Structures are given as structure tokens and as C-alpha cells.
Amino acid sequence: MRRITAYLSSLLLSRRDDGYSTETVIITAALVGLAVALALAIGGRVETEIEQIKAG
Questions:
Q1: Which of 17, 29, 44, 50 to pair with 4, CA 20 to 30 A apart?
Q2: Alpha-carbon distance 36 to 43, whole Å?
Q3: Which ranges of 1-56 would DSSP assign to H, the alpha helix?
């Protein structure tokens, strides 16, 4: 019985994945980069509109 318990325990513990995969990290970094680029583009557009309102 101990052998079976030890075997099942080793299977459970060996399949644990406590970290993120490389693919997840790359996709997350790409999405963050896109979000930053989009925020900068929107910010630039808003500033352009503000300058046009002030000049107009």
C-alpha cells in the first residue's frame, strides 16, 4: 500500500507547474507593448486635438 501511495504522490508532485510557460510570458509582453503603443497614440491624438481647440 505504501508503494502505491508513494507512486501516486510522485505522479502528482511531478506534474505540478508553479510557473508561467515561455509562450505565456512572450504573449503577455507583446500585449503590454501593444497597450503602451496604443496609449501613446491616443495621448498624441488628444494633445493634437487640444492644440487645435486652443488655436481655433
A1: 17
A2: 10
A3: 2-14, 22-55
Q: Which residues contact 20 (CB under 8 A, 6 or more apart)?
A: 28
Contacts of 28 (CB under 8 A, 6+ apart): 20
In the chain, the amino acid numbered 3 is R
- Identity (one letter) of the amino acid at 26? I
**Integer Cα distance of 22 and 19 in angstroms:** 9
* pTM of the entire predicted model: 0.60
Cα-only R_g, the chain = 26
